[in-house]
Amino acid sequence: MRSPSAGSVEDSSSAHFQPSRRRTSPDGIPPVEGLRMPQVQWHEPVMVDEVVALFAPVPAGWVVDVTTGTGGHSAALLAAHAHLHLLCLDRDPEAVRATSERLSVYRGRAIVRHARFDRLGEEAARAGARAGSLSGVLFDLGVSSLQLDTPQRGFSYWHDAPLDMRMDPTTGPTAADVANRWEEDELTRLFTANGEVRFARRIARAVARARPVLSTGQLSGVVRAAIPAAARRHGGHPARRVFQAFRVAVNEELELLSSTLPEAIAALAPGGRCIALSYHSGEDRLVKSAFAQAVSGGCTCPPGLPCTCGARPSGRLVFRGARRPTPIEVTRNRRAESARLRAFERTGLEVADVDGADGPSVSGSFGVIGDVSV
Q1: Are 49 and 122 part of one and the same domain?
Q2: Are residues 141 and 278 in the same domain?
């Protein structure tokens, strides 16, 4: 399911909030889809300049920001690229409210909806985008600052709060449900899959014995006590990987990502791009695999030989491997430290490799982008 991950600062997907930067909707301009919200704090999105540059050459039309958070990437794309419209999805109602306020100045070019990203196709169709017509899809994965920096949401081991961790607090089981209902063997597998290999069994047994486990402070204490003192001196907070494991399980993050990535790639128009920011190795592995599958078309022929298996590649990598944030950005924003950026472009005509990207050239037609209705 997942591979070990060192992560960073509670594996957040977003930069810290900027307390001095506050905005409200301009007078007379109603928020997106009719919502008017109180003041919120904006955060600096991770690798925003790189994301904006990667979407510059895509055809005019809809880009779907499937994990919009407080709308930082979406706002930057709208400001930089007049040829783009943004459909912003998030499963967190608070994020939807914040983004609706932030993007109210782009009325007519932005739609914000409360939805999980596995509803990408359905929500794009509601916005008027035909299948295979999207200019882009953006994934900014993991937990956001809006969630992490709100103690009562239960994502942080630095604050004592109810053990919740739901990105959408209106539905689904909580982290307390997982801690108190899962069998010890299930918890062991969960912790192992999230990098807690050495002490997974010890921690699972300790959690089971401590039931009911109802708060973040209690869970953090149980994990700390289960790990030998010598091991606690290394690798950051001892509960970091366990909290990540609970969060991923509660929100079905990897299952949803695995099923949605191929759908996002298939929804692109020729020249459209899928950009993904990952923050731990489990996410990055799924993104890398999905892009590689699309580039090869599932080709099973020996490397270096002409393809004879009938595979049909659908695009290319925009650049080889994953890009990282600059040292300057990491210094400014520690939560960007673990970010990995990958980019895929759908192609409709045979192309040569660009920017050192490897993968077969692609031929064939995938349709044309339609007009955008706003």
Answers
A1: yes
A2: yes
Of 222 and 374, which is predicted with more confidence?
A: 222
- Domain count along the chain: 2
Q: Which long-range contacts (CB under 8 A, 24 or more apart) does 214-218 make?
A: 214/162, 214/163, 214/176, 214/180, 215/160, 215/161, 215/162, 215/163, 216/154, 216/156, 216/157, 216/159, 216/160, 216/161, 216/162, 216/163, 216/243, 217/159, 217/160, 217/161, 218/160, 218/163
Q: Are residues 180 and 306 in the same domain?
A: no
pTM of the model: 0.82
* 19 and 96 assigned to the same domain: yes
Nearest CA to 294 out of 266, 335, 272 is that of: 266
Give the C-alpha distances (Å, rounded to integers) separating 14 from 20, 64, 67, 244.
Answer: 17, 18, 11, 15
Which tokens is 86 given? 């943004």
What residues contact residue 344 under an 8 Å CB cut-off, 6+ apart? 265, 273, 274, 275, 291, 294, 295, 315, 316, 317, 318
The CB density around residue 59, as the number of other CB atoms within 10 Å, is: 18
Q: How far apart are CA 269 and CA 291, in angstroms?
A: 16
For 322, phi then psi, to 5°, come to: -115, 140
Strand partners, 86: 63, 110
Residue 13 lies in a domain: yes
Q: For residues 286-295, give the mean pLDDT.
A: 97
Please tell me whether residues 52 and 194 are part of one structural domain: no
Per residue in 365-374, is it b (16+ CB within 10 Å) or e — as a string? ebeebeebee
User: Which residue has better confidence, 169 or 358?
Assistant: 169
Q: Using alpha carbons, select from 292, 300, 296, 291 the residue that is nearest to residue 313.
A: 296
Given a cut of 70, whether residue 359 has pLDDT beyond it is no
> Tell me, what CATH number does 73's domain have?
3.40.50.150
Query: Do 193 and 333 fall into the same domain?
Result: no
Contact 135, 272 (CB under 8 A): yes
Q: CATH no. for residue 161?
A: 1.10.150.170
Please check whether residues 285 and 336 belong to one and the same domain.
yes
Domain that residue 233 falls in: 157-250
Q: Is residue 3 part of a domain?
A: no
Q: Measuring CA to CA, which residue among 322, 332, 337 is closest to residue 276?
A: 322
Q: Can you tell me the mean pLDDT for 226-237? A: 87
